[in-house]
Structures are given as structure tokens and as C-alpha cells.
Amino acid sequence: MLENYFKIAFRYLWQTKISSLIHIGGLSAAMAAAVLILLWSQNELRFDTYHPDTDRIYLRADIDTIKSEYTFNGFSSYPIYEAIQQTIPEIEQITTAGTDLSRKVIEINGQSFKESNGLIVGRDWIDMFDYKVYQGSLDYFFNHPRTVILTRSKSAQYFGDLPPLQQTLYIDSIPYTIAAIIEDIPANSSFQQDVLVSNSIYKETKGGIENTASWGIFSQILILKLHPGASLEEAEKKIAEIIASNRPPWMADSPRRTKLVALKDLHFEKGLLDQIIPHGNTLNLWVFSILAVLLLAVASVNFVNLSIARIGSRIKEIGIRKTVGASKQHLFIQAMVETFLSITMASGLTLLLVSLLLPEFNAFVERNLVLNLMDHHVLLLIFGVVALVFIMTSLYPAMVLATLKPIGLLKNQVLTGISRQHFRKGLVTGQLIFTIVMLIGIVTVHHQFTFIQQQTDHYQKEQVFRLHVPLPLGFGFGDVEAKERHRSRVNSIKARLLANSAIQTVSQVNGTSILDDKRNQPVEISWSGYPKPTEPTDAVIIWADEDYAALANLTLVSGRWFEAENTVDLNNLIINETAVKIFGLQEPVVGTSFSTISYRTGSEETGRIIGIVKDYHHKSLHEQIDPIVFSLDPYGASSYLVKVNAGAAPQALDHAKKVWKEFTPEHPFRYTFLDEEFDRLYKDDRKALTLSLVFGGLSILLSSLGLLGMISVSIQQRTKEIGIRKVMGANVTGILTLFSKDFVKLVLIAFAIASPIAWYGMNRWLENFAYRIELDWWIFAGAAVITLLIAVLIVSSQTLKAALKNPVESLRTE
Fold first, then answer.
1. Which residues contact 756 (CB under 8 A, 6 or more apart)?
2. pLDDT tens track for 369-387
3. What is the pLDDT of residue 416?
4. Are the CB atoms for 177 and 168 separated by under 8 Å?
């Protein structure tokens, strides 16, 4: 009997190839999008859970005990690791990894570059974490200095098809052998570094030895595992005491104290400052997971509506089957089998789409997700999606089919029940609500992103690039000769850069982006005529030169910028409008005298404010503008901002590369355009825009198909009515208006429900921005008009066919 059900189901799907393809294709697209999003969500929620004893592993970090709003730092100094190794009984295992490999120059086959995704580790790091060896030996890495471990992907990137264990790479001109190749790091690991270098590298140079001996250099990730039942608070307290007793004098009064952050919490820890650990966003996680489930629901509603619409083409078949004795149970099972086959085909197409789209999706979410059907977590996810869709799509059409009256079927009277009409209208209205909410979301996200771009357009991002000159060994640590060599070199580089006609302006600045400068630090300034501050004020300090204001298109509200030949300006300051408010200065601000401790001499110096700069966005629009204090560079800034003439970027870069090789041949040439920095700064917002476009496009497509199914059912029910109206003299326009009216009502009802939902949701999203747009009325009106036009076009296209049909054919069955 079951075999017969499948034969009939296959035969019906083959007979309706085109409609079945639309049916299954729409469902597959929605299921593929949902599976990708839920695969990502599952990965985010399972970060670092695969490590043995993950609930007892912690990262040592520093948190500010005075200003709780400060982010905390996850870096440690190397001596902390050595000092607490054997002295704290609560600790079962401890390890450290250096993050300063990115400062080294790596050379392979004559090509020099810097590797930003590596760690400097020892045996204890490998023992702590679960690395799986593909080739080579970890023991060789443990027992031999100057060795490296690579992942399979990194090995292929470095050496292609060559046998990696026979290769050599050079780090700062020192040869290193490849000890082992490990499997790629799991996508749900906080430590995605795919190059592991032996910590013997610290013994190669004087600087490395000094760094590992200094309590004031923070470049290590310190991970520890506590004994079962050990007190977290006691461990934190003892570590803090050891650090406090060994701090250098300049850190003696630091308010930062040890905090142990659980490994399983690292991914979603909002306060953690580390950039090498991939951070998750709980809001995005839940929003997009909910949207994925809603998309499945919309696709299922669409499937239901199209299934019911197709019943009209089978009414006589079903009527005859019921007349000759087919029971409700038989028809119910038949409908369930047909749906099962459709869902099975849709599931196969879904897996194919996911496999094809996964590489692009991985690049988009910056993860290394794998569709591993042998992983029970992935298998459970896919089974859950398929089961949910099957339940949502099969029961209602099967029940409708099984309960139809045979006489009514044979007389073409189907689906006329009021309750059923209301139920289907409710389903379509739900689809329309989702579509309108998504449309409002798309327009809002796009409008906010346009606003962000407008706020930074004055930088002319596509015409400005940044070079960073590495500091010489000893700079900033008492080596006066190194400082002077560096100052002479950077001044010469600027002059050489300006010698090319493709370059318009060059400015030296203290090493960070114009667009993303978060270097808030305590500033102690006493203002003449004002009470002496009781505590430091947090501000961004920018050491610049006389060309910085013109290059960055800063606007002076009053006063002037620094002048190259005016030596008095070495002691003067320029501040922004926010600084004026935070420091509590009154007009006239320009000319106000001050005293502070000099960066150059360490003694008190005096000066005055010579200008006020209009507030500009020096970091993401998610954050408030900080007080900014500009001063002339006291040392010789290590970064250059280079503005090129329009269309002359290639020529300017060629010249800059020649200058770079002339002055710093030991380092690979590296540069970044401001538009690239902009993209990195707002990459999460771009992702939100892209995902909203994808979800919005799919919801429009599915809602359109749902409306198509609904209007098809309506026309089937009212075919004779259309014929009678035409016989009585009704024209095509009148019939179109009659049928469109009901669907326009559904759109208006959906708009009334969707508007407050969208208003609340988008306001919550906009709260993430310190500077944002207002939700104007036209955003909501536009979404309603677009939805209304789509609905009217679909209804009109289907109604027009029925309205142009010969009325004799419509009335023939009577």
C-alpha cells in the first residue's frame, strides 16, 4: 500500500514539473539560508567547548578598579607566567603565548612579509589545547629550537604542493624548520592562529631577552587551569599580590587588577580589549537566529498556500477517489507522502546550496565553518530544520484534502469554508508582516550606513593611504641615539615622498588611524585662571605636524593650526570642541595658558591654546566623540598619512615603495588606504546590511509566491462569479478592482501590525550608535507602498487571466 502512495506522489510531481520546481525551489532557498545562519549560530554558542576541562580554564586579564566603564586588557608580561607557575596551589596547569610574532619579518623563497596570525609558544601551550597532528612530530617541536608548526591551510599557502616538512622559512633572517603540520583550527576556537613558533625565538636577540624579563611589557596571553573545586577568588587574589609586589615603579599606583575570565565566556565578553580573539555579538546572534526561524515559517506558509492552490487542479481526481471508497485516512496519508517527497527533494537541494555557498559565507562571517554530516551537532541541526518544515507544511494541506466533500469536489466547489479562508488570509498576512518589517529594516540600515559615510566623506578616503615606519630597537626605552636616528630618518622620508608630483600632501602623526583612534589616556593639565583638577581627564593625545589639519580636512572653529617655523608652537596645544566642554573652559578659550608635565623632558612646561577644532568622528559612530588634544610631535612620529592626486594612486604607491626600500629595506612595504580602514571599522554594520538585504529579498520572493497561491485559490472559488459578472456587463477593470480590494486590505492590516514592531526593533538597533538617523515617516510609507505594488501586480496578473476568459467556459459546469 505504501509503495502505491509513493508511485502516485512521484507521478503527480512529474506531471506538475514547473509548479513543483517553484514549490521546492522557494522552500530550498529559505532552508539553505536558515541552515547557514543556524550553523553559524551553533558555532558561536559552542566556542571553546571542545577543549578538555574547558570549565576550569581561564585567561588572566587586567581590569580597572576605579573606572568600571573601561575595557579590560587580556595581555600579561612574561615574568608573571614564571612567577606564578609553582607558587599558587589553586593552579593545576599554566601556559603562555607571545603575540609579538607580527613584528618579525618572515621570508619564504625570497618573498618577505609579516604574519599577523601567529603565536610564540612552548610545550605547555600545546599540552593545554587540543591540536591534532596531520604530519610531523610535536616532540620534534618540543625538543628543538628554531622550529615552527603550521596548519594544513597555512602550509598550502606558504609552500603549495611542496612537502612542508622539508622546507625552511626565515624569521628575521634566522632559518626555522617545519616540525609539524596540524589540522586546521576548529571554527569555534578563540585561538585561530595558524602559525606556532617555538618560544626559543626570545633568546635570539637582546630585545627578546629583555622583553621576557620585563614586568612592564604586556605581549603575552596567559592561560591557566584551576584544580577541581579550587577558589577562583583566591587564585585572583594571589596572582594580584605577586604582580603588585613586582611591578616597575612607573606602574606602582596602577588601578588595574587581575581578573580571570573563563575560556568559555571569552567569545562573548564585551569588555575584553584583545583584537586577536574573535569576539561575538549576542544581539546579532539572537536577531539573526530568530530571523532564520521566521524565514522558515514564511517559507512553510508559502508552501502551504501553494499546496492548497494546487488542490484545484486535482478536485475531480480526489472526488472520484472518495466516491469509490477512499477514506479520510487514505487521503491524509497520500498528502503527507507527497509533502514528504517534496521536503526530501528540498532537503537535498538545500544541502547542495549550502555546500556551494559555504565558502562565500565563511568569508562573509570570517569563520571556518564546515558542513560535516558526521558531526552529530550538525546532523541534529539539519534534522531539526527538516522536521520543523515538514510539520509546518504537511498537516494543514493534508487535513484540508482529507475533509473535502466528494459531491462538492465533483461540482468544482472547493475551499469555500469561512474559517479556512480566514486561516489562509491569516497566514498570508503573517508573510506580509514579515516582509514589511524586513523592508523597513533594509531601508533603515542602508540610511544609517549612508549617514555614516557622509560623516567621513571629508577625509577623501580613497585618496589617502597610511604608512607605518617600524621604530628602531631601543626607541622609547632610553636609547637617545636610536631616537635621533629615527627622527632624522622619518623627516627624510617625508621630504622624499613629497618629491613626486603624484603626491599632494604628507603628514606625520603618532601611529594610528584618523578613523579609528581610541587611545584615551589620563591627561593632567592645569589651566590658568581655573581651579587645579583633582584627577586626570581622559583624552586622546595626537602628536601631529603642521600639515595634519589640511590633510584630514579639519575645520578650525577659532584660532590657528601649528606653524612649521614657529618654535613656540612646540609647547602649544590645539583642542576640539568636546575638550572645551570637558575641561570646562570659558570663552575666550584661544589664548588660555596651561601647565603640564612635558613628554620631552619629564619636567613641567607651560604653553597656551592656539586653536579649537570642530568636532569630527575620530572613531566609530557607535561611540561618542572624545576630548582631543593636539600637540606638535615631540619625537618624530612613526606614521605617515599620504594624500595623492585624483587618479594618481598607482604612481604614488610605486614612488612610496621606492622610498620605503631606500630607508627601511629590512621591512616589507605595507600600506592601508583609509577606505579599507573604513570597511574594517564598519564591517559588522556592512554584514547587517547584507544580511538584511538577503532576508528581505527572500521574504519578498516567498510572500509573492504566497500571494500567488492565495489569489489562485480565490479565483478557483469565484470562477463562476467572474463569468456571471461578465455576462451581466462587468468590464475587466471592475473585476480587477473587485479582486484587488481584499488583498489591499490584507496589506493595510499587515502594515498596521508591522509598523510598531519595526519601529521598536530598529530603534533598539539604532541605540548601538552614538550618532544616528531618525526613523522618518517616509521609511514606513515606502515599505508599505512597495508591498502594496507587489501585491497589486501579482493579484492583477492572475485576475486578468480569469477576467479575459470566455464566460461560457466559466459557466459550463452548471
1. none
2. 888 877 777 788 888 878 8
3. 47
4. yes
